[in-house]
């Protein structure tokens, strides 16, 4: 990784200085630019010189050498730094490339990403090769290092080995450890997790918490262990509790927790006037949530809520950069920073009409600029899912005495099953359906019943899940089999079958977990899935997160995991998975 250790090589730094000396012309000159300066907390007019991916100078001077330099009069614009998403999960049907491309169009040109899917699906060497290639995108991608699988996997000790975690922590693209979804283990005495937190601190990297509903005492304990930030505050009172314990607070506005308007209202009611310890996150929402923007949307919510204008922008830019110790590269329009600049027509509308990312136009006057940078996932062993095993009616045997009841999109509790499960078709008079999770390698399965997912769903198959294992749901076993085999034929994806016909399919051709399609295409496909499921009795709002969190043991109360049916509160396997 030595070739990646420095952002710019010595030769490049000499060239940057040569631009100031007039020996080399800048690539782009922005004249009469009114830009937001976070130090002075006001708009300042200046000339901005850009060479390659870096801002070379901001001030009154003009370059001596303008040969082959693009000169742009910015009198009609307001310039702000590129926005930063500090808590992205770039595998929610989309992939890191398509997500970054779409985010850049909305002015979010820097993202700090979850590594969980890469950690579970790839060896470190291959994952780091992928990270290296992703550096060539116009957007800037950083990463976190997970300390737990967020579920009960069969070989957690070997996957989350000290050598694997430490290699990620030492990678220069990794800015933090966490998020700490496994914090109860830490409180219970997991010294390996505590050691990883210590290692992150030694490397001057941050620790992201995950503390929904945590008491003041728990927040204090986790702060002592090393947690720096938490994104799980759901009320103004919870925000205040985190601030008082010394946390930075990431204000979440996501598909399952669209809390920002209420959070800001209550923050302002507490008469909090200093916003330096706040930033925003959309927390890895599915594609449809981003239909009307990303961090730009959240800045607009803050402006409309009455947050001071400069603070509303700072929470999406400089505050994040300072927190992650990358202020020397990001978060402001200043000499030496990466040339990520958003061009606004109205200071009260943060959605940019033009965007520079690493000094390249990715959007200009409302139109996307095609940079011709398709990403070759096959070079990183991502392609159609290949299942060399089958399932039969013998696998679809259900006799579990209790099942899983959905309380909302993601919270599930156990309930006693009273219906006859020996039949091949369940009645549509109730909302109970067959549910099976099966290992993506075909080695084990878990069969139970789910209540509240739908009441008229024939067969549903998904290779998209938190663990990458296969989820089957339905009233009719034949339809479930047909959905599975169509999903297998596609090479992964989400499929609905009913009455012997395929009525919906969403191919996920990157290992059955991600699509190679654009966000715009995925938004249409996801909206179509929502309509199909609602018509069949799905009464919640976010089926993608429902699928993702079936096995996620950081949420109450019962989960299906590779180890079996898992009681989250008592931390034990109730019924082990069945080997095939």
UniProtKB/TrEMBL annotation:
EC assignment: 3.5.4.2
InterPro entries: Adenine_deam_C (IPR026912), Amidohydro-rel (IPR006680), Metal-dep_hydrolase_composite (IPR011059), Metal_Hydrolase (IPR032466)
Keyword annotations: Hydrolase
GO molecular function, one term: adenine deaminase activity
Catalytic activity: adenine + H2O + H(+) = hypoxanthine + NH4(+)
Domain Adenine deaminase C-terminal as annotated: residue spans: 410-571
Keyword Hydrolase: yes
Residues covered by the Amidohydrolase-related domain: 78-362
PANTHER family linked: ADENINE DEAMINASE YERA-RELATED, N-ACETYLGLUCOSAMINE-6-PHOSPHATE DEACETYLASE
Homology family: Belongs to the metallo-dependent hydrolases superfamily. Adenine deaminase family.
Name used for this protein in its record: adenine deaminase
Organism the protein comes from: Peribacillus deserti
Taxonomic lineage: Bacteria, Bacillati, Bacillota, Bacilli, Bacillales
């Amino acid at each position: 990784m030595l070739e990646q250790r420095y952002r710019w090589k010595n030769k490049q730094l000499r060239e940057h200085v040569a631009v100031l000396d007039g020996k080399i012309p800048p690539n782009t000159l922005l004249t009469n630019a009114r830009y937001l300066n976070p130090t002075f907390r006001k708009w300042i007019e200046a000339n901005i010189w850009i060479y390659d991916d870096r801002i070379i100078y901001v001030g009154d001077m003009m370059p001596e050498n303008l040969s082959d330099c693009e000169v742009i009069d910015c009198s009609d614009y307001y310039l702000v730094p590129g926005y930063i998403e500090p808590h992205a999960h770039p595998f929610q049907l989309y992939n890191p490339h398509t997500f970054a491309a779409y985010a850049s169009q909305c002015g979010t040109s820097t993202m700090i990403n979850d590594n969980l899917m890469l950690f579970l699906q790839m060896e470190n060497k291959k994952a780091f090769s992928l990270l290296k290639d992703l550096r060539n995108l116009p957007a800037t991608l950083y990463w976190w290092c997970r300390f737990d699988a967020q579920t009960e996997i069969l070989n957690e000790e070997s996957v989350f080995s000290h050598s694997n975690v430490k290699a990620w922590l030492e990678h220069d693209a990794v800015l933090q450890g966490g998020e700490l979804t496994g914090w109860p283990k830490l409180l219970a005495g997991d010294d390996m997790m505590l050691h990883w937190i210590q290692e992150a601190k030694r490397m001057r990297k941050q620790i992201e918490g995950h503390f929904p509903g945590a008491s003041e005492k728990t927040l204090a304990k986790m702060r002592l262990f090393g947690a720096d930030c938490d994104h799980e505050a759901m009320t103004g009172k919870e925000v205040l509790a985190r601030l008082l314990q010394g946390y930075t607070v990431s204000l979440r506005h996501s598909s399952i927790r669209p809390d920002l308007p209420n959070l800001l209202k209550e923050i302002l009611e507490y008469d909090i006037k200093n916003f330096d310890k706040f930033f925003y996150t959309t927390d890895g929402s599915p594609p449809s949530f981003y239909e009307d923007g990303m961090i730009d949307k959240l800045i607009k919510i803050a402006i409309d809520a009455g947050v001071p204008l400069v603070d509303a922008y700072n929470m999406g830019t400089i505050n994040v950069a300072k927190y992650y110790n990358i202020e020397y590269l990001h978060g402001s329009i200043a000499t030496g920073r990466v040339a990520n600049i958003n061009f606004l027509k109205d200071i009260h509308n943060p959605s940019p009409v033009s965007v520079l990312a690493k000094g390249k136009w990715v959007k200009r006057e409302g139109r996307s600029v095609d940079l011709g940078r398709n990403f070759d996932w096959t070079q990183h062993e991502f392609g159609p899912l290949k299942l060399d095993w089958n399932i039969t009616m013998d696998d679809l045997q259900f006799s579990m005495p209790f099942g899983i009841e959905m309380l909302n999109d993601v919270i599930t509790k156990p309930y006693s099953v009273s219906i006859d499960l020996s039949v091949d078709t369940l009645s549509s008079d109730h909302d109970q359906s067959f549910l099976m999770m099966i290992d993506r390698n075909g080695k084990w399965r878990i069969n139970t019943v789910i209540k509240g997912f739908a009441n008229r769903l024939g067969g549903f198959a998904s290779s998209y899940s938190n663990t990458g294992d296969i989820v089957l749901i339905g009233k009719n076993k034949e339809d479930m089999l047909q959905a599975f085999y169509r999903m297998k034929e596609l090479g992964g994806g989400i499929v609905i079958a009913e009455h012997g016909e395929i009525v919906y399919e969403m191919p996920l051709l990157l290992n059955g977990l991600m699509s190679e399609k654009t966000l715009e295409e995925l938004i249409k496909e996801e909206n179509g899935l929502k309509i199909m499921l609602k018509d069949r009795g799905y009464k919640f709002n976010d089926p993608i997160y429902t699928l993702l969190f079936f096995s996620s043991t950081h949420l109450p109360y019962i989960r299906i995991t590779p180890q079996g049916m898992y009681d989250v509160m008592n931390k034990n396997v109730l019924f082990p998975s069945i080997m095939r």
